Amino acid sequence: MAKPREEPSAYQRALAMLVRREHSRKELGRKLKAKGIEREDADTALDKLNKQDFQNDTRFAEVLARSRVSAGYGPTRIRAEYVHADDGTPENIGIQRG
Question: In 3D, which of 32, 88, 31, 47 has the Cα closest to residue 65?
């Protein structure tokens, strides 16, 4: 008889999301919370992922800016999208306030 499948840990869930694309720490935290993960468990997992450099907010911001620039978006649109995501300040991705 097969063993019942264990629920993936907060670390495993977050890592699975990062394999698909870059995420900010806040974005991962929101997604883990939506899956019923306790805040303390999520924070521990996100700290570990950050120490391993699997999750990096600066890299996330750079990838976001690069992808939006290549899609033809200007600095104002990119700034608005980044700020709306509540993942930091526009200056983190080199967008100067106008």
Answer: 88
Q: How many Å apart are CA 27 and CA 12, to the nearest integer?
A: 16
Helix 75-84 with 57-70: angle, nearest 10 deg? 140
Within 10 angstroms of residue 34's Cβ, the number of other Cβ atoms is: 8
Using the structure block, give the residue that is written with the tokens 């993960």.
37
Q: What is 78-95 written as a DSSP string?
A: HHHHHHHTTSS-GGGGT-
The tens place of each residue's pLDDT in the chain, 98 residues long, gives: 677 788 899 999 999 999 999 999 999 999 999 999 999 999 999 999 999 999 999 998 899 889 999 999 999 998 888 777 655 555 554 554 44
